[in-house]
Amino acid sequence: MLLNRASVALKIAIAVFLVAILVRLFFVVNESLNPTKDFSSMTLNSEIARNLVGGRGLVFDATRLVLLKKIEEKVGHKIDPADADEFLKGQVHVSNYQPAKSYEPGYPLFLAGLWKITGEKKFIFPSLVQVFLGGIAAIGVFSITRSFFALPVAALAGFLYALYIPEAKMSVVPYQYPWVGFITVFFTWLLIKMRSRKEGAAFYFMAIAGGIVVAVGTLMYSTLIFLPVLGVVVFFQISRLKRAFMATLLMLAVFIGLLSPLLLYNMSELGEFRIVTRPFWFNIARGLGHSPNPWGFLPDDGAIFDFVAKKRPKYLAFGTGNDYNAEIEGYLRSEIIKGIKERPLWYVGATIERFVMAASPFHWAITQGEIIEDDQGRMLLGPRPEIELWGALIASIWIIIAFFGIWLARKEWRLTAPVLLVLLFFLGLHGFTVVHPYYLNVLSFVYAIFSAYALYNIFIWTRKKLRFRGKDDQ
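and the corresponding C-alpha cells:
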C-alpha cells in the first residue's frame, strides 16, 4: 500500500514538473508574451557580466550602457548581449567604466559563469536554466503541501503553481527577481523537511543547506537577507532548545561566511561597510507614491529621480548608471521622515492602503495606473488595459480562496507555520515599502497550497451534500 502511494506520488511529481516546464517553455518561445521589456536592469546585468567574462570585475561601461538603452528604446526590444556590438557599430564613444555600486552582484555572476560554459552571451541560456528551476520549484510546492495535507491537495497545489500564468511568464525573464521565488520555495521546503529530521544529523546538514540557499538569494536580491530570521523562528518552533540553537549557529555561520567576500569587496573597492544595496529610502519613496502625497511621488524610479533632480540636482550622477547614491538616500530620508512627522495619520492610512494592494492585485491595478507622460513631459497615471484588469481580478479571487483555505487549516498552524511566515514576511515587506504584482509573485506558491486545500474541502462538502440528497430522493 505504501509502495503504491509512493509510486502515485512520484508520477504526480513528474507530471507537475513536466507541465511547469512546458508552460514556461511556451513563454520562452513566445518572448513577446513575457514582460522582458519591463526590466531595464537586464541590460545593466548583461554589461556587468560581459566585463566579468572579460576580466574587468564588477564594473560596467556607463557610456556604452546609455547607448544600448537608447538603441533598445528605438528598436522596441531588449538587445541580446551577443548582438550588442553589432548594434553599436559606427557609434563612437569613450569608455567610462564605473563600479557596480548599487546593484546585487549575484545575477551578473550567474550570467558570467553560464556564458563561460556556453561560450555565447545570449539571454536564452539563463531563461532555460530558469525554466528548469521553475519545474523543480513546482515539485517543491507539491512536496511541501504533501507534508501536511492529503495527496490530492498536494497534486492540485503543484498543478496550480505550474499553471499560474503570471508566475510562469515572470520566471523565464533573464533577471534576478524570478530567483526570489525559487529561493523562497527551496528554503521553505528545507524548513518543512527539517521537522521530520529533527532528531538526526540531517537536521544540521539541512540548516547548513538553508544558509547556502539564503546566501545565494541575498546575492541575487538583497531583500532576502532577512530570510534567515524565518529560519530561526522555525528552528525553535520544531526542535529542542539546544538543537535549535546549534542549527541557528550553523545556518548563520554559513550565511555570513558566504557573504563575507562581498562585504570585503565593498570595503576594499568602494570604501563602504555594507552587504546589501543602498536604495532603501528610494523604495520607501516609491511606495509612498501609491497614494496622493505631499511630495508628488509616483511609484516609479524616474518620477523619484525627477523629484530629486528638481530639488537637489547636484546629487544625481547623470548617465553613470550609479544614480542610487548616499546623497540621494540621505536627502529622501530627511524629507520622508519630516513629512511623516507632520502627517502621521496620513502615513498610517497610506500604509494600510499598501497592505490592501499587496493582498489584492485587482485593487492595485485599479488604483495604480500605467505611468505616462503628458504633452508637457509631466508623469501621470493612466488607466490599465481591460485584459490586465481581468487578470488582476481573477488573481484576487484566487487569493481570497487561498485565505479561506488558511482559515480552514487554522488548527494545523504548527505544521504550516513556515509557509504562513513567508506570507507574512512578504506582505509586511511590501506593505511597508512598495507594491507591485511582479514583487508579489513570490507568494504564488503560498496561494497555490491554501487555495488547493480550500477547493478540495469545497469538493468534499459538495459531494457529501449531493450524496445525502440522492439518499433522500430514494
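(Above: one complete record from the training split.) The longest strand covers residues 370-373.
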